[in-house]
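Predicting holo structure, S-adenosylmethionine bound.
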Amino acid sequence: MNLKSEDIELGLLLEAIYLKYGYDFRNYSRISLKRRLRQACEKLNCRSFSMLQDLILNNPDMVTEILSFMTIQVSEMFRDPLYYKAVRDEIIPLLHTYPSLRIWVAGCSYGEEFYSLAILFKEEGLFDRTIFYCTDINNDALDKAKKGVFEFEKIKDFTRNYQMAGGKKSFSEYYTASYDSFIMDKSLRQNVVFSDHSLVTDKVFAEMHFISCRNVLIYFNRELQDVAIGLFNDSLVRNGYLGIGSKETLQFSAYYNSFQEVNRKERLYKKI
Ligand SMILES: C[S@@+](CC[C@H](N)C(=O)[O-])C[C@H]1O[C@@H](n2cnc3c(N)ncnc32)[C@H](O)[C@@H]1O
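Done. Tokens:
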């Protein structure tokens, strides 16, 4: 074992953040974490991860800022529109058989994935019997998701995605525009609970019929991916559905045999 000093310091920094604040990034994929923490060092005038560690340990109010470097909030409404089309065509008809539904959007960021599913469930007549649970470790992101306000410059992309996802109306029916932003219709937030929950350190909190967790596993190493997939397996009802991101797979997971592929390309699975 001959680790570079920077890698040793990074390991110690992650250990310190976990011990002091409970955020466990120790098994996140190191390459991108290192790149993002180097940016944090630059912004906060730290010459090394050890200096950053000292700063964080002695300034608890810096945690939010550090979390904003360590988590990625890139998202879109109806991101990968064919995923939502597949949910509409292949999952929703089966969800119609349940009198009430619990849907978990794990790693919901600013809420784009949730608002997309809420619209879809409305259009398919399932919204009124559904409770959505939206979770993330980033409380700033959760606060934004609760407000449902997005920058207006994104509207063109979101509208195009909505149409490609098989949207049945005009996307403009779901928001109100003002100057440089738009706010999602408050009726979409009627049946939703937003809460702080970590896929790494927290447990099952309800039995789910469908879990959509897209573009989160990609930041975890193999071992940690299995922790999260195990949590999904324990949370789903039998025959419940799991959707993950286009660059993610269950193929190498210890839980691979617990799931059946529903749509390989769109990464939709059913628990068996
Ligand atoms: C790239 S965003 C994905 C947003 C959305 N799901 C999508 O696909 O567009 C990744 C999100 O995962 C969240 N996240 C990272 N680690 C997490 C963890 N351990 N538990 C829950 N959420 C986590 C981040 O805060 C961020 O909001």
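Residues 71-75, 79, 107, 109, 112-113, 136-138, 141, 198-200, 214-216, 245 surround S-adenosylmethionine (CB under 6 Å).
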